[in-house]
Amino acid sequence: MANTITIRGFVCSTVETRTTQTGLVLGNFRMGSTHRKQDPITNEWVDGDTNWFRINVFRSLAQNSVSSIHKGDRIIVMGKLHVTNFLRKDGTPGLSVEIDAETIGPDLQFGMAYYSRTGTGRAGTPASQPGGTPEEVDAEVAKLEVSVAMAGQDAPEHQDDPEAQDDQTSGMTDGETVDEATGEVIQEDSPF
Predict the structure, then answer these.
(1) Per-residue pLDDT tens for 54-98?
(2) pTM
(3) Using CA atoms, how far apart are residues 29 and 26, in angstroms rounded to an integer?
(4) In 3D, which of 107, 24, 30 has the Cα closest to residue 60?
(5) From start to end of 12-145, where are the E strands?
(6) What SS3 state is found at 191?
(7) Which of 107, 126, 108 is nearest to 118 (CA)?
(8) Which of 30, 35, 1, 34 is nearest to 98 (CA)?
């Protein structure tokens, strides 16, 4: 009986792949997962212990992982859990925790992602969508990052003009202010 598990964490090694004599692509990488907990004394959130996993990937998931996953990326992994006891060379007992990944994805709480589907879902086939090569995907992501960054900026002619800023706030009702850092309208009597 296999235990299916879903883990959120960060990639802490590069994806290493190899191909068997029969053509099966295998890969693995290390992943850490640190849970957050609230300190009862200071009432602040702090990092708890880090759990370490070896993630095993197979076939097209292995090939896609090589070009998509990099050290430091925040990811979510779902797969079958394997816990194995072993003896080290010095005779001390050890514990190996591995996950045979069924699916891997980016953790969108920490960043953006651009998805590009491969042609038939089989390893080694070209992408059917525009921007399928890694270089084209990188260029498309860079365009998206620039457009997102530019969307949050004010027009240059309004930055230093106090009258233009007054015009922007004239449509607000009593008890509302504008957060200068984010541009968000905040109600002064809001409990948040």
Answers:
(1) 999 999 999 999 989 999 999 999 999 999 999 999 999 999 999
(2) 0.59
(3) 11
(4) 24
(5) 16-19, 25-38, 45-58, 74-87, 93-106
(6) coil
(7) 126
(8) 30
